[in-house]
Amino acid sequence: MHGLGNDFVLLDAVTQEIHLTQENIRHIAHRKFGIGCDQLLIAQSPDQEDVDFRYRIFNSDGGEVEQCGNGARCFAQFVRQQGLTDKQVIKVKTLAGIFTLHVRDSINVSVEMGKPEFEPEKVPFTENSPDNVYRANINSLSLEFAVVSMGNPHAVIFVEDVNAADVQAIGSQLETDSRFPKRTNIQFVQIKSRRSMAQRIFERGVGETLASGSGACAAAAVAQQKNKVDDTVSITMPGGVLEIHRDNNGCLLMTGPTEFSFEGSINL
Length: 268
Fold this sequence. Notes:
single chain; Diaminopimelate Epimerase, Chain A, domain 1; 2 domains
């Protein structure tokens, strides 16, 4: 499946037993020797009464991560298509906590992404700044960025022209900045208007991706905190458009499409 070109292999571990090593995951994710994906998503039975599924996310490098917003939308459609639930409101447990997914129709899903967390230690980020502005020197270039957690860590950089941003060079170095003990995802953001932004994404353990749900929320959260955009903003990424809405409690709702690519099997 994919959400705006951010692509996933999804596995049903509710009706079958699945035990994967990091090597297995890297092989599945490999675009030449495996199936190919940005992330591997696994549906598991819940381990507590108030949720419907456990939702596990593995990056293409084999590492397990806390949250994936685009993946969550695909996950909701997947468990319905597999006959694992007929609910339109689905609660899932991730490493980042419990999230509620709303299936709007056969394509669109909204995800309650919760409140953005700007406290550095909760990102986590090991530097403090009263105005949430930090600096890094990369390839003789001095950059300003903000940090935020959407259940996973993000650095947000505002740029004049997102198409001219050196996403690979900056992203690969900032991802492993020692101030991010769990590494970070990097969002390159251009403000178009009060209701519109453009964005490119460098995802930790993956590289540049066509879209990111949690990344879009991180970008919107920082832009809204700095009063650059309204409570509802459309974000255009290389793979398409997501809508992010901030409610009166400061919680974010992300809405966007999903698409099935194919089904198959693989021998490991």
